[in-house]
Write a structure and sequence with these properties.
Layout lengths: L1 E7 L3 E7 L6 E8 L9 H10 L2 E8 L9 H17 L3 E5 L3 H11 L4 H24 L4
Parallel strand pairs: 1-4, 4-5
Antiparallel strand pairs: 1-2, 2-3
Helix pairs in contact: 3-4
Length: 141
């Protein structure tokens, strides 16, 4: 049984998946979608859930630095509620403060060009979200 991690943005959803033991997260892909049409990522996400035998979904919750919930966090919560209903899988919201900035730093340190960073940043952020969740569970999902 695996978990899938989602970094939900207004135009893209970064996707990562855990190994079967719940120890490590690996970046999978970035889904391009239209947030105004909440079902626009359904086909691609459904294929990833099925192909990876997913039993749980972890959605990043982009809280403000003071811990409050802003517009992006509300949008992520709406999407989490939608996927929980759509796929009938348990969904966990995971605090993702600073994950995108941390992913950017890692890619900068790897001397990756801006163009290449743009292609993988969401997938990397999803990996960091999922890995944070897995680490908190000690390999038990």
């Amino acid at each position: 049984m695996k978990a899938i991690g989602l970094d939900v943005g207004s135009k893209t959803i970064g996707v990562a998946v855990s190994d079967a033991f719940g120890w490590t997260a690996q970046g999978l892909t970035t889904i391009y979608w239209n947030e105004a049409e909440i079902e626009s990522a359904d086909e691609e996400l459904n294929n990833l859930i099925d192909a990876n035998d997913v039993s749980q979904i972890v959605v990043g919750l982009p809280k403000n630095m003071d811990g409050s919930i802003g517009e992006r966090a509300e949008a992520s919560k709406r999407y989490a509620e939608y996927v929980e209903e759509k796929y009938q899988l348990p969904v966990v919201m995971w605090d993702e403060r600073l994950t995108t900035m941390a992913a950017e730093r890692v890619l900068l340190e790897a001397d990756m060009s801006r163009k290449k960073r743009k292609k993988v940043i969401d997938k990397m952020a999803a990996t960091m979200i999922l890995q944070g969740y897995l680490d908190s569970k000690g390999g038990v999902i």
